[in-house]
Structures are given as C-alpha cells and as structure tokens.
Fold this protein.
Amino acid sequence: MTAAEPITEQEGRTIYRRPLLLSNPTTYCPGCGHGIVHRLLAEVLEELDLGAKTILVGSVGCSVFAYDFLALDSVESPHGRAAAVATGVKRYRPDKVVLTYQGDGDLAAIGTAEIVHAAARGERFTVIFVNNGIYGMTGGQMAPTTLAGQKTTSSPRGRDVQSQGYPLPVTEMLSLLPGVQYAARASVCDPGHVGKAKQAIKRAFEIQLEGKGFSIVEVLSTCPVGWGLTPSESMERLRDTVMTAYPVGTFVDRPRGIAPKLPQPGSPNRSITEGF
Amino acid sequence: MTVVDQPAGARPHLLASPSGTGEVDPPPDRVLMKGNEAIAEAAVAAGCDAYFGYPITPQAELLEWMARRMPEEGRVFVQAESELAAINMALGASAAGARVLVSSSSPGISLMAEAMSYMAGSRLPVVLVNVMRGGPGLGSIGAAQGDYLQATKGHGHGDYKVPVLAPSSISEAIDLVRDSFILAERYRTPVILLADGILGQAMEPVAPTFQRLEKSTPDWILEGAAGRPPRVLKSLHLQPEALEEHDLALQAVYERIAANEQRWAGEQLDDAEIVLVAYGTAARVARTAVERARAEGMPAGLFRPITLWPYPAQALRDAARGARAVLAVEMSAGQMVEDVRLALEGAVPVYHHGRMGGMVPSPDGVVDAMRQAWAMSQESGR
Ligand SMILES: Cc1ncc(C[n+]2csc(CCOP(=O)(O)OP(=O)(O)O)c2C)c(N)n1
Ligand code: SF4
Ligand SMILES: [Mg+2]
C-alpha cells in the first residue's frame, strides 16, 4: 500500500484494542513496567478465555492496586505471603486459575520462604514476578535483586557485595526444583522483548491449565523513579545493564523437555563427585 | 461402631468417624480421647474444608490427626513451611469460600498475628486453635494461660477484635469447635479457640457426638468473575476517610458480637461470698478449690467465662453482687484479672492467684489464696 491510497472505512482494521480485562487506566509512574505487564496479563487471560475463572492473589508493592486495573476476582496478601495465599486458594479450588503478581522485594526478600516452598510442593498456580531491582513503593531502597554497585536510597554508595550481599537469581534457583514445570525470565525493554514476555506468560498459564505444577515468569522491569532515570533511559539501562546481569530465556519447560542438567535429589551426580 | 483404620502406633481406644459421615453410628456413650485429637475430629465433623498447620508441642497431635483424616475425607491438608505460611494459606482458602481450621501453640500464634489482622480487616472467617504453652519466648512446653491478653486485646496490629472461646474440658472443646465455626461465618471474622497444653494433651471420656454444620455459599467468596463484577477481598483503604468508614463498620460488627455472644457458666454462686473467676484448666482447679472451701465453711462459688472476648462483664457483675471478694485464678502473672477489674469497676475487691511457666495452681494453693483474699477484704471492709 502506498501513501497515495488512504484506508477506507471498510478496509479499516483494529490495530490495537484495549483488553477487556484492563478495567481502569493504571496510575503507575510514566515509564513504569508494571503497566506493560498488566496489559500482557490481560491479553493472555483474554486470549485463553480465562478471565471468568481466574483468581488474582495480589501482593504488597507498587502493584498493590492491581485489582483496580484488572477486572478479576482478587484477594490481597500480606507483604511476601502471596505464594502461601495462592496455595490456599488453589488447593481448595483446583478448578480455578490462580496467579500471584509479586514484586522483587515481595517475592525475593520477605517472601523467600513462601515462594521456595510453594515451588517445592509444585503448587499448580502461576507466578508473575516483576523484578525492577528495587523497592519501588517505599521510595527506592535496595532489594535482594539490586545489581552490584547500584545506587539506591539504602545503598547510597552503590550496593557493596561484601557487606550487602550479591543479587539473588531467584528464578534460576527455583528452576532446580522438580515441582517447577515452567520457569522463564523475560523483559519489557523493547517491543520485541515485550512480545516474548507475552509468550512466556501464555505458556505459564497453559502449564497451569495442564495441571502439571508450578509455573513462574520473571519479568525484568523498570522503575524510572527509583532508578533516578527518565523513562527512555530506564529502558536503555534495562536492556544494556540489567539484562546482562539477569539473562532472559526459558530455564525450565519440563513438558517440552527443557530442564537444567543438575542433580535431582536421590540421583547421584558423577560430575560433582568425580575428582575427589 | 466403625473404627477407621489407624495410623501406625495409634492407640486402639481412639475413635474416628467413618469417612463421609462425620458421625459415629451407633455412638458409644463415652470414648477416651486426647484433647488435640477431639478438637481435630470435631472440626472434621463440623465440615472443615481445609486445615493448615506446622508442628509445635503441645499441639502436634492435632496436625497429625488432620494429616490422616482430611485426605480420607477428600479435603485439604497442607503441612506448611511455617506458621506464617499456614495462616496465609488459610487466608487464601477462606477467600475462596472454604471452612478453615488452623492450629498452633503460643510461639506459632505470635507468627500468625499479621495475617490475623489482615483477615479481620478483609472480613475472612477462620478458626484458630491456640494450645497455649509457657512463655515468653520459647518458654516451655507446659500448659499456661499467658496468651490471654494477646488473644483478647488484639493479637495483630490495628483496631480489631476476634471472638475468643475458652473450653475447660475436652467435651466442651468439641462443642466449642462447632460454635467457633458458627461465629466465624455468622460475623465473617476470625475466631480463636483458646486451649492450653493440659486440655490438648489430657485424655478424657467424651461423648463422641460430633455435630455436622450446614454450609451456605456466601455472596462474597472468590470464584472468578463470571457474569458479575469482580470481587475484591482486601484490608487496604488508602484514603483516611475510607479506612475510618471501614473501621467503623468493623466496630459495628464487634458491638453486635459483644451484645449477642457472651457466654459463661456459674457454679454455687447463689450464696457465694467469695467468687472465683477462672477459665480453661484453671477453672478445673478452681472448681475443686470451691468444694474444699465449702467443706471448710467458706461460702465460695465459681464464675467461669467461656467467651473471653466478648467478656461476660454484666454476668460477672451480677454473680459478684453479694460477694465480699473476687479472686481470679490463672496460669499467668495476671492477665484476665484486668478484665475482672474492668467488669466490677471497684464494686468488689479483686485479688489474683496465678502460677506461670507451665506450673498449675493447686487446689490447696487456691484455697490459701481465698483465705487471704477473704481476710484482706474483711480488713478493707472495716
Ligand atoms: C510487613 C511489611 N513490611 C514492610 C512493608 C513496606 N513495604 C511495602 S511495599 C515494600 C517493597 C515493595 O517492593 P517490591 O516488591 O519490589 O515492589 P515494587 O514496589 O518495586 O513494585 C515494602 C518493604 C509492608 N507493607 N509490610
Ligand atoms: S515507583 Fe517505580 S515501580 Fe512504583 S509505580 Fe513508580 S516507576 Fe513503577
Ligand atoms: Mg521492586
């Protein structure tokens, strides 16, 4: 089609339709990745026609109001406890689709025990883990996921790994557990990656529908306010710096035969014992 | 009479209701049951849909009983990774409409305080059993009543209260499990069943007439927003005006509970000039002390609160009207005695006798304390 041929009304087609499950415009800061992830979630649930049987387990962080933006039955959890709350929901209603939506402070600091044990039990719900490397809601403090050297309001000279520890690669850690059927890391740094993030989210829900076990998608995201950057600088930092430290990809998709080649409990692993 | 297959090591006198019925048929007059197991079986019979727990003495048999019985009934049992997780699993199951039981003992109950506050704020029913042990800290595994203030004055943060029911025998515990579920669902609130290590561990003959409880489908549970607007269960109300309105609504519920749900029992109160006030295991000791005191010619009686919140204050005032002294007997440094004083508002002198750390008051110790209280009240009355 050339510029000389305008699109007639009959030929017009929908380029973008707001997903029905996105009930209200979000109130996140400009350039915040939470809004993108909400949209992906709404699109996936709509495409799979799951909206009417889904229960959202919220968390505490900037996404605490997710239930105001997503038209889903929702329950709030105390900070960090979403995976336990979701366990209770899904065990009682295995016929429903259950997801948690958690930030990195929520999931990887205060909620570490709950996420690890839900994964170890192979709970059949889906975790959307939005990692912006910071505590957005409380004013940009260091999170367990904050990169080495990164300045935050509680690591003003940059995260010193000697005293403040190393970034925690939670999704890789969880991918070792046999109960985890699907674990992937995605990013919202550019349209191409956003598309892949959507595919990962969709796959996670398909795994849940198959009733196989735990599924988690970590989405690397931005916090321009906490990072002290503009929205476009934040996307660049996400692509150039954060994604180098946290590689994206599928770590586990057991139904498709993708799983880390690591010792499983009970099976002796030669590569570890050899040489002693 | 059906005896359900026993786990390895189970004692043959233990009875369980046959699968699916929650009832023993025909019921024997009496069977010997351990308190923890009786509480668990009462919950199964009452139609508890989901149980979450974490091992801790002196409550572990309750979890073990549920580990066997809940799967037998096709219901949910999860041994959680902590009490934090257990109560939050309860929060989730309750939001989805389950009738939920959680149990623990003192240190584990402390860990549950945050989620209890969330559940109160989100109006989510749950029954939480606290088989109290000695504290503070790791304390001891002996029976104690040191969690009275925790249970009745808040537990977690914020302006909320939960009904607290205190059985003083295993038979009564069985009835109060069912009643706890009724209260939890009637008022959409957490309820605490406050027992202690002796009630949990002791065996008593009980009539195994566990009662079933009907269940409705409330209009607030989460099932997916099919053909209706989404439902949100939450405690967060960021605008102060909105939160105050929510808090006022909660307070209105507590007023209704306080007006309608006070329970107590009295023994030999008609002519009592010295009134003992005690609950739970302490009330058992107090009853013996009343008999001994009467044998000595001291006109004693026992007032036993069954709801610790709402505290049966008016009933206590009535019971103590003709008394010269009131003596609170507790397995604590003196916690319930504060409510006794609030109830009596100085009308009668109030004394306290307590043991701590897993020590239980002896009947003779209580009689001594009664004599002293009696003497002191005579002096102050002069
Ligand atoms: C028990 C408890 N501790 C601390 C807080 C305060 N708090 C609220 S959100 C938050 C961190 C959220 O960070 P994250 O999960 O990364 O979410 P983000 O805002 O970055 O999306 C903290 C510490 C709380 N609400 N509850
Ligand atoms: S503070 Fe950060 S995470 Fe929170 S809304 Fe703003 S940009 Fe997003
Ligand atoms: Mg964060």
Remarks:
- Confidence is low (pLDDT under 50) at residues 272-276 of chain A.
